[in-house]
Amino acid sequence: MYIVSTSCGVEKEPLKTAFGFKGNALTCLWQIAARIETKNNVGVGLGVQSVLWSDANVFKTYGEADSNEMMFSVTKYALDLIVGREFANPGELLDAIFPEAYAYAKRVTKLEGVSKTFVLNALVPVDFAAWQLYLKEEGKTGFDDICTFDGERQTKLANIPLITYGALVSDVVNMAENNTPLFKIKIGSDPDKDGDYAKMLAWDKNRLLEIHTALKDIQTSHTEDGKILYYLDANGRYDSKERLLDLLDFCRENGFLDRIILLEEPFAEENHVFVGDLPVCVAADESVHDMEALEERFALGYKALTLKPIAKGLTMSSRMHTFAAAHGMVTFCADLTVNPVMVSWNQCVASRLTRLAGMKVGVVESNGGQNYVNWEAMKGYHPAYPATYITDRDGVFDLGEDFYTTSAAIKQTGGYYDALSRGEGKT
Q: Is 322 exposed, middle or buried (0-12, 13-18, 19+ CB in 10 A)?
């Protein structure tokens, strides 16, 4: 793949309400479309920037708008780097540009310790554009020709909704009554914005008990025992193992510890606490930005890995899955509140993973419908709209035969994002 030109565009999609996690909140999410061209083919890849998720310190230091500008500048810098260069495949491209992109991110943020995940997030549209281009350049027909995820092939994926700090319990109940089997619940709130961990713990206990009390008697057909299950996401907010054990003891005392099938990122990346003896399956997410970090998390007792092609790129996610599968780690796909086209990339991976313990169907997280103002319009930008896998029904994506035969249309772009990749979209 000899790259002759690149370009990109951005669209700022507003959120319905402030999206709270990591003790802070987002009000919009920047949609990036990157374009990579060879003499004969074009690849267009999408990305959604989440500075708060990928590096909360950058977000806190510069605020939402400026930190997004910084991440977008990394994307543009990376695209400039590849013009006039030749790459055999997307993996070679990522390996070639990542060190320079990371050095640039340090310069633009003026933060020597900027997270590598911040850079991976910025490179997602470049990575996806490279994969689409590779499919065309090499005459590949679909997803299975470029990536191997060797779990079970699913026919249905339960959509995991995200329960943010401000989500109404009544809305959670409505989703549960519509057969939603698994809820991702954000914990680690900073209720008075004063960094008080005791208040955080008290808030988390009250929140979890409130949600469980509302859901405990509702049945679902998508779990082995008919009970609704929980997936807790702390985003690195807990400061000590003792405080986390206090929370888990509370869950046990109130009869719902056994419903927690995943606990994601309880501690900050630099907090090297052994978690293998905790009474829940602990998953690594944003702390894992390369293979070295994954090996470190595995040694610390992390038994699950959150695969995020839509947040770290397909190249890195594929490499990480290979390690995880070889070491018996549970893998699943979580969201970054991405657009429907990117949900399809996530579904391509999630549909090829082994089901989580206690589940009768596969899972994938997609919370865009809960959070974007313009979600219904965004679905229309998908080149395969209105395919069955684009819209979940009663909390489940029915993949259908066309999902596998067309690889969820990942080889296509659609006119809307093609225009945005040329810099012609709205901002």
A: middle
The average pLDDT across 6-27 equals 91
∠ CA 408-223-181 to the nearest 5 degrees? 65
pLDDT at residue number 426: 56
Of the candidates 108, 105, 111, the residue with the CA atom closest to the CA atom of residue 57: 111
The answer to whether the CB of 390 falls within 8 A of the CB of 379 is yes
| Angstrom distance (rounded) from CA 112 to CA 123 | 19
Residues β-bridged to residue 318: none
DSSP string, 211-242: HHHHHTT-B-SSBTTSB-EEEEE-TT-B--HH
Half-sphere exposure in the Cβ direction for 212 (13 Å, CA) = 21
Token code pair at residue 220 = 């679902």
Helices (H), 308-394: 309-312, 314-326, 340-350, 368-371, 375-379
Question: 5-141+417-421 belongs to which CATH class?
Answer: alpha beta
Sketch the domain layout of the chain as residue ranges: 5-141+417-421, 145-410
Inform me whether the pLDDT recorded for 69 exceeds 90.
Answer: yes
CATH architecture assigned to 145-410: Alpha-Beta Barrel (3.20)
What is the Cα–Cα distance from 211 to 84, expressed in whole angstroms?
A: 55
| Residues 407-421: b if buried by 16+ CB within 10 A, e if exposed | bbbbbbbbebbbbbb
Does pTM top 0.90 for this prediction?
yes
